[in-house]
Amino acid sequence: MIEVLSPSRWPQAREAGALVGHILSTLRARSTPGTNLLDIDRWAQTMIGEAGALSCYVDYAPSFGRGPFGHYICTSVNDAVLHGLPHDYTLADGDLLSLDLAVSLGVVADSAVSFVVGGAGSPEDVAMIEATERARAAGIAAAGPGARIGDLSHAIGSVLTEAGFSINLDFGGHGVGSTMHQDPHISNSGRPGRGFALRPGLLLALEPWVMADTDELVTDADGWTLRSATGCRTAHSEHTILITEDGAEIMTVQPT
Questions:
Q1: 54, 44 in Cβ contact below 8 A?
Q2: Domain span at 127
Q3: In this structure, what DSSP letter does residue 197 have?
Q4: Can you give the CATH number for the domain in which 58 is found?
Q5: Which segments of the chain are extended strands (E)?
Q6: SS3 at position 247
Q7: For residue 24, which phi and psi values (nearest 5 degrees)?
Q8: Domain count, the chain
């Protein structure tokens, strides 16, 4: 299903996006060496509840996971890149952490951020994170009324490929709206001029992600966490955008 929001629902999308951005910004600041992943999950649960929002994850049970997920945020560390199941792990200085959060306030917003815990990080980690952020920005810049999904995929993939990364096509961006995962699928590589034509009211989550030296994934024993097949480091960036008459509006900006 491809859901197009009426203009009367756009304020809900903005409110949900602002909440997701605020929670991720807060959790990023709190995620220091010595922080346990289960603490991050509890903090997310509290903030979602205090805002009167609903978690999109806790009861989520798709075919690709061993559901229900049972937690409020994805916490992926180092070689984990997607769907990281919070568990009893204490962050160390230099860990590369990705936080992925989706909540609903009648409309869903979904966003992810990667960063190095406790410091500036190695040049390789910084370059990988920045590549996903540039790819995300390129996808957003390509979005607007009349553009096609392939234009976004091509823009994202061109940045990632130029940065030297191979691209896994098993998971990518997607539509959101009344529910978290909807059509259209937005691959992180593709051909321009192909696919669904964008229109005002379409809400999309763009999420470039890469692994340092592979495009192969393995599933962790928890049935959820996806890791690089070689054990290499990974990064993941995501924003939800709203297609408007003027282009694309980012819903999930993190306050500074």
A1: no
A2: 7-247
A3: B
A4: 3.90.230.10
A5: 54-55, 74-77, 80-82, 96-104, 108-116, 173-176, 182-186, 203-206, 209-211, 217-219, 226-228, 234-236, 239-244, 247-250
A6: strand
A7: -65, -40
A8: 1
